[in-house]
Amino acid sequence: MSQEAVLQLLRDQVEHLVDDIFVRNKKRIYIDTPPESTLEVNRILFAELGGRLATASGIDTRDRIEVLYHYCLDPDGQVVTVRTWGWKPEPEIDSVAQIFPGAQFVEREMFDLLGIKFRNHPDPRRLILADDWPEGEYPLQRDFPKRRSESEYVERIEKMVRTES
Amino acid sequence: MGLKLWGFKKSPWVYHANVGACNNCDIEIVDCLTPRFDIERFGMVLVGTPRHADVLLVSGICTRQARPRLQELYRETAKPCAVLCIGACACSMGIFKDAYHAAGPVDKVIREVDPDAIIAYIPGCPPKPEAIIAGAVKALSTL
Amino acid sequence: MKRTVVPVGPFHPIQEEPEFFQLTVEGERVVDADVRLSYNHRGIEKLCQDLTYDQIPFLLARICGICSASHPMAFCQALEDLCGVEVPMRGRYLRSIICELERIHSHLLWVGLAGHFIGYNTVFMWAWKYREPVLDLCEKFTGNRNHYENFKVGGCRRDLPQEAIPETRELVNSLVEPVTMLTNAVLDDPVLHWRLKGIGVLSEKDAKQWCVTGPTARGSGVKIDVRADEPYAAYDLVDWDVKCVSEGDVFAKAVVRLLETLESIEIIKKCLDQIEPGAIETEVREMPKGEGIGHAEAPRGETFHYVRSDGTNYPIRYKVRAPTYMNLPSFKSSMIGAELADAMLIVAAMDPCYSCTERVAVVEKRRGKKNVLTQDELLARCVSKTEKIMSELGRKPLELPYE
């Protein structure tokens, strides 16, 4: 499918559900989707357009946690990204893993690292952080210190681990 | 020297553990078994359980999740045993020293269990198989 | 029937990475499987936020020892998508040559490991012996056997000297015969047919549901390959084919990888024929604000990188997704119903690279009696099944010419 054909399909099927369809260049399309439509838009991209979920990226911006679902429309190499978000301080969105299982791991990872909850996720367990990693500490959030060697971080985390064990 | 030490130096059995590495050091370790380097002619054999091992080859920064397992592994290994830290990550965590999920380089983790552990360092990213063999021979000959 | 939980891992001698599988079995059949990783999680995405765009490829190469050219390649794709720079022709050919050399030695490594798992240790020694000249060549060009560090935004760091081209051509030509012989041996050996066919089948529908990539997908009839779908480097400048088989079992995946190795050799030869002297990089001085997405075909599948930049030297967010991350969960479909003796083989057929994955943790629930098997015992089961088949067919082990 060429980019024009993809755009036409998107305009027919999802334009009424989304805020904006932005064409960045010949192979990249970004769709800004409000949280209430995210499930339907993802379903259309997976089931109707035949997209393959490449991955999902989570980003902590100042007031919301954005989740970007990247779909590859393989034969032509188009990558369509669905950008949705959950508002802080308690970010939550609907889980796409209800539609297909390929999204399970990446959503679990985003919860571990960013703290965004996915409603109706079939298997919401800890994925990539250690068993003794304290709850409520999300490493990829903006205020989590970058350098382990910062003494404040080491003291804070080690104290939490010691009191819990 | 006693029989145990003689056996240890003449034909060390090695057990390999990856505690959070990119896997390149591990491939170079397994490469030592292949026909070009062939450590089996020195009597070094890769064994499947630490209870039979004389030498622990450890690669990787020790991640938080792997830390208790590494300590358990060290306790289970038959003594006397030598720990060889293979690669920059095991020696000093290398470029991952600021990682939030790291629990310290391998020697710090092992010395929590046994402050007198015999630890040797083979730096490199990855160390070539020749370097690994040279390092192992050097470590064993100092015993 | 009583259910037993069999833990596999986290450390064992031949599967180099640590992972902890929890298989729930009834008798000899696997009825459920779970995996806990996290042993390899090093927090690379967080580290990237503190490094400049020049420093990040060095970190990304160390995500994984074998995909150490693919991650920097995807990085370059993402940043070139962000800033829109064109790579000169010679740089594109060099990138393809290095990526294909990596694919060859990675697939040979896999062939060796798979051979070891089923008990063909000669194949293991032999395949790894033939990897060595490839690694020597990489060391000659790039300075290191594995972490090449040859890619940067806009091109390559080091050039290939003209006098090295005939040497490279001679090396890849010398690999054709052994790989062809191995491919034919696998295709003709009835023991391997009995041992590997029908094991760990991943249907095309499941492959799409789990969104798998790479040889795991191409072995199930899903014909996707980033090099063909969105060509990068020199893949649109040379003629080559995507290899795809539809059965979805371990045998199909082995065949796909062997055929791909032969195809990689052809791609390298064509690149060497077409490469011409010239610049290898376009200088990039600044990164604009925006987002970039890049993907590349690693030996295991598609690596996918996403970058968001605010115009400074450091990314706000750098997302890495390695191929095994999408391929690994599909073992839920391919392992359920299989025999315990085949469990290791099914995982190995996905060619997992946990260092890339660095995650996946599952806390196991205890059901019934916990029966602990050591790795030697599991490997022994895998090998003894092969021997049983061999004796049933009245065959000797696979014999290969040994120099």
Which sheet architecture does the biggest sheet of chain A show? 5 strands, mixed
> What is the number of beta strands of chain C?
9
Identify the most extensive interface between protein chains: A-C, 41 and 45 residues
Percent of residues in helices of chain C: 40-55%
**Proper CATH architecture of the largest domain in chain C:** Orthogonal Bundle
Percentage of β-strand residues of chain C: 5-15%
- For the secondary structure, the number of strands of chain A is 7
Q: Tell me the strand order in the biggest sheet of chain A.
A: 1-2-5-4-3
- CATH hierarchy, class of the largest domain in chain C: Mainly Alpha
Return the CATH topology of the largest domain in chain C.
Cytochrome-c3 Hydrogenase, chain B
Q: Which strand-content bin applies to the residues of chain A?
A: 25-35%
Domains of chain A (count) = 2
CATH superfamily of the largest domain in chain C: Cytochrome-c3 Hydrogenase, chain B
Mean pLDDT of chain C: 83
Q: Approximately how much helix is present in the residues of chain A?
A: 25-40%
Q: Compute the number of helices of chain C.
A: 16
The CATH topology of the largest domain in chain A: Beta Polymerase, domain 2
Name a few traits of the molecule:
heterotrimer; A: 165 residues; alpha/beta; Beta Polymerase, domain 2; 2 domains; two-stranded parallel ribbon; C: alpha+beta; three-stranded antiparallel sheet; globular
Fold and architecture overview:
- The complex is a heterotrimer of chains A (165), B (143) and C (403).
- Chain A folds into 2 domains: 3-128, 2-Layer Sandwich (Beta Polymerase, domain 2); 129-165, no CATH class.
- Chain A is 29% helix and 28% strand.
- Chain A contains 4 helices and 7 strands, in the order αββαββββαβα.
- Chain A has a 5-stranded mixed β-sheet with strand order 1-2-5-4-3. Chain A has a two-stranded parallel sheet with strand order 6-7.
- In chain A, strand 1 (20-25) and strand 2 (28-32) form a beta hairpin.
- Chain A starts with a helix and ends with a helix.
- By secondary structure, chain B is of the alpha/beta class.
- Chain B has one domain: Rossmann fold.
- Chain B has helices at residues 3-10, 24-31, 67-76, 87-92, 106-113, 129-141, and strands at residues 13-18, 45-46, 55-59, 82-86, 118-122.
- The mean pLDDT of chain B is 86.
- Chain C has 403 residues and is an alpha+beta fold.
- Chain C has 2 domains: 3-40 and 334-393, no CATH class; 44-325, Cytochrome-c3 Hydrogenase, chain B (Orthogonal Bundle), CATH 1.10.645.
- Helices cover 47% and strands 13% of the residues of chain C.
- Chain C has helices spanning 44-48, 56-61, 70-83, 89-118, 121-142, 164-188, 190-196, 204-209, 215-218, 226-229, 250-274, 323-327, 331-335, 340-349, 354-357, 375-393, and strands at 3-8, 20-26, 29-36, 151-152, 155-156, 289-298, 301-310, 315-321, 369-370.
- The model of chain C is unreliable at 12-16 and 355-370 (pLDDT under 50).
- Classes of the chains: A alpha/beta (165), B alpha/beta (143), C alpha+beta (403).
- At the A-C interface, strand 3, strand 4 and helix 3 of A face helix 1, strand 6, strand 7 and strand 8 of C.
